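Work Package 3 (structural annotation) set out to generate three-dimensional models for the target panel prioritized at the project kickoff. During this period the team completed the workflow that converts sequence records into discrete structure tokens, so that structures can be stored uniformly alongside our sequence database. As a representative example, we reproduce one entry of 151 residues exactly as it appears in the project archive.
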Amino acid sequence: MNGFDEGAQLRVDGDLGEFGARLDEALRMIRPSLGRRRRDRVSGYPGDGTQRWPAVHALDVAVLFRLALESAPAGTEWQAVADEGDKVRDIAAVIGRRLGLPVESVPEETYGPFGPIFAMDQPASSAHTREALGWKPVHPSLLDDLENIQP
């Protein structure tokens, strides 16, 4: 019997996938703001920008789901995190560079209902997941993936 028959949990933190195919709130928040950033002529981040945002590529999560289905004990939890915490200032910097915009701190309210989430420090670790299940994320990081944004 595999882990999911008895309720193993896989926790996916932060952002997923290739640019254009992201599945979670991080890019849903970033995409609508790209047009606003172009219009406002700034790539912003809340606070001092040191808060961390975990991320993982969707294809790496798919591999982890397979590993968990095949070997996770019942009742276990697993973290699907490849980038354990990119600073939101660094995320804004890549977006700013790719769109030719200055990068600066903006009010949390700039991000609407996602503001409090984006302003929160959210470090996460998958060290236990990697060690116990032999999971090795191999796909592009969030910052590398954001390099695909076109002006």
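Residues 25-40 form the longest helix (16 residues).
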